[in-house]
Amino acid sequence: MEHTNLHRFNEIVKILKESGLINGVTPQKLCSTLEKLGPTFIKLGQIMSTRVELLYEEYCNELSKLRNSVVPMHFNEVEEILKESYGNYSDVFSYVESYPIGSASIAQVHRAVLKDSNKTVVLKIKRTGIDEIMKTDIELFEKAVKTLHLNKIFKVMDLSSVLEQIYKTTKEELDFNIETNHIIEFRNNNKYEDFVSCPFVYKKLCTSNVIVMEYVEGYRINDVASLKYNNYDLTMLGDILSHNYIKQALDDGYFHADPHPDNIIVNENGIVYLDFGMMGRLNEKNKQLLKKCIKAIVIKDYKEVSRILVDMSTALDEINYVNLENSVSSILEEYASLELNEIRASSFITDMFKMLRNNHLVLDKDITNLIRGIGVIESVLKTLNPDMSLISVLGQREEKSLYNLFDYDNIKNTSSKVIRGAKEAFELPLELSKFVKAVNRGESKFKVELSDSSNQVDKLENLVHQLIVGFLDGCLIVSSVIIDNDEVRIIFIVLIFVLTIYLLVRMIMDHIHKGY
Fold first, then answer.
1. Mean pLDDT in residue range 101-129
2. Taking Cα atoms as reference points, which of 57, 59, 104, 163 lies closest to residue 375?
3. Domain identity same for 193 and 205
4. Active-site residues: which are they?
C-alpha cells in the first residue's frame, strides 16, 4: 500500500510539474491539469466550478467543462458491485443495460428492469473503491501542494483550505444513504407542486453502493431546440423553475445545491430534478436572516443589510463597520439604478463576494451553497428566457410579501394584536374619563387621603385630556405614513404639528407648576 501511495504521489507531482502551474495559473491550465490527474480531481474541478465565492468567473466557466470527462467503469466491475449488493442480482432485476446512460467521477447510471413489477428503473452505482481513492488522492495532493509551494503561486485561492472544504462536501456525496434520504425529503417538500418533481426512490432496494430510482425520460432543460420543437413554453418553464427554487430556499430551507442543466430535465409533467448528491439546508437562524436581508435590500435599508451580513458570516479580521456599510451601499445603489429584470444574479453575487472578502467576512456554508445554486439556476434561466432574471422574480415575491405584511401568519397574529391593542387604547381614555366624572359627581372615591383634593382631581382630568390628545396625535402620525393621498397627508401633517406643539406647551406649563 505504501509503495502504491508513493507511486501515486510521484505521479501527481510529475503531472503538476508538467502542467506549468508553477510558472503561472490560467483557467485552461487548471482545467487540463485536473483532467490529467484523474477522476478524483475531475470531481474536485466540477465542485470548484460552482464555487463562485472561491474562484473568479472565468475559472468557474472553464472548470464546468469537466462534467463530461469521466471514462465509465467496465460492465464487469458493475456486475461485481451488484453481486456484492444483492447476491444473485438477477433475482431483483430481470435486465441491466450494460452501457451506462450517464457516467460521472463518483458513480455511473444504468437502466434496468425490476423483476417483480417489470418497471424500468435506473441504478446509480458507485465506482469501485472510490471512497478510499478520493481520500488518498486528496491527502497526496495536499502534500504535493506543500512540496511545490503552490499556495504561494496559486493566489486565486488557498488550495489547502479549499481542498479541505471540498473533501467534506464530497464525503457526504459518497454516502448513498444520505442521498437516498435527500431524494425522499425533496419529493415530500414538492409533492404539492404542480410542475416540479423528482424520481421516486425504491428505498428498500437501495444499498451503500446502489440507489434504485424510477426511470424518468425528458429533455435537458437547456436543450432549447428540442423544447421548442416539442412546443414547450420556455417562458413558463423559466417562471416555474425560478419560483420553485426560491420556494426551496426561503420556504423549505432545503434546496438542490447543484442545479446545473445535466441535473434538470423537462417532460410532460413539468420540471424534474435529478442527482441529489449535493443538497443545501439553511438553519432556521440563517433562513430568517436571509428573509430579513432581502426585505432590507428591497426597502434600501443598507445599515440593516450590513448588520445581517455580519450575522451570517465569520469575521477573519477586525471589521470596519463604516467601511462595510459604505461598500454595501455602493453595490446596492449601483444595482438599484437598473430595472430588476436587467440585474444578473451572477454579477451581483460576484460583486458581493468580492466586497465581503475585502471586509474580511466569509459567509456561512449554507448561505454560500444557496448563493452558488442561485448562480447556476440563473444561467439556466438565461437559456430559457434571456429577459428573465431571478432577482426580478425575487423582487416581485418580496414586494408581494411586503404588501401582505410578509406572510399570512404575520397578518393573523399582528392583526389580532393590533385590534386588541387599539381596542384597549380607545377604551383607556374613555374609562379614565368616566372615572374622573364619577369622582367629580361623588359616585366614586379614592381610598387614599388627598390634600387639596379638588385641585388634584382637576390635574388628573387634565392628564386624561392630554392622553386623549396624545393618542389622536399618534393615530394621525400612523395614518400619514399609510395614506396614499398627498393632499390628505399634508392636512394630517399640519394637524400633527399643531397637536404636538399643544402637548409640548402643556408639558412645559405642568413642569413649571410642579407637575401633577
1. 93
2. 57
3. yes
4. 258
